[in-house]
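Box S1 | Example of a co-folding query
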Amino acid sequence: MSSLFSKEKIIYKTPAEIEIMREAAQIVSRTLGLIAAEIKPGADMLKIDKMAEEYIRSQNALPGFLGMYDFPNTLCVSLNAEVVHGYPKGKILKDGDIVSVDCGALFEGFYGDHAYTFEVGEVAPEIKELLKVTLECLNIGVEHTRVGNRIGDIGWAIQNHAEKHGYGVVKDLVGHGLGRTMHEEPQVPNYGRRGQGKKIQEGLVIAIEPMINLGTERVITAGDNWTILTADRKASAHFEHDVAVVNGVPEVLSTFKYVEEALAKK
Ligand code: MG
Ligand code: MG
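Box S1 (continued) | Returned holo structure for magnesium ion
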């Protein structure tokens, strides 16, 4: 989606800017924690979207996706075979579904962008495994985000882990630099070759977001011209963190802590 990228050069962030971005990411993290408690069979994702919007506004922030590229909501809600960019409207969760919730917030001029794929009720073992491995892919990608590596090392590590499990790595959509715009350089593909791409430098802030499919890596765009779904209609998982390079090593600005706390209470 290179057309979405508004800047040609990587804009490295100062420590002070990274602190603001941490708060933007934490606002989104807390929003996902709030949502986590509500994810269950029968839940109406449009109501949950409104809850997310209210919470973000209560934190002196703005919903990051609302109105961006004319997207009408606060959350991207993608069910089962939907990969990303789904609408919340009309989505009532059912037992056995998985639902990817992607959320952005704009705080003091900087964006947070963070996603989690939730299980609804009892999910099939093969789908649980897909979620587990996709989360591992994200964490492995984060570990490779350090000075001395290149952007290609991140994608290589993610791809390698996913393909070891026989999964399809979505290539049509990628992670991205993050800052005063939602999508900046560099693009951060979930595939790649070791030692290729731009050098990772101090102050880099990126959103790493593996989109991993149970079956084929091929995706199509739905008739609504927004939702991306798998070509074989098998399940897809998506997790996203915001990561800054500080003192040469990755610092995750977002957190799944609030989601995990909410899920542990269920
Ligand atoms: Mg996102
Ligand atoms: Mg993103």
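The two ends are 37 Å apart (CA to CA). The CA atoms of residues 79 and 99 lie 5 Å apart.
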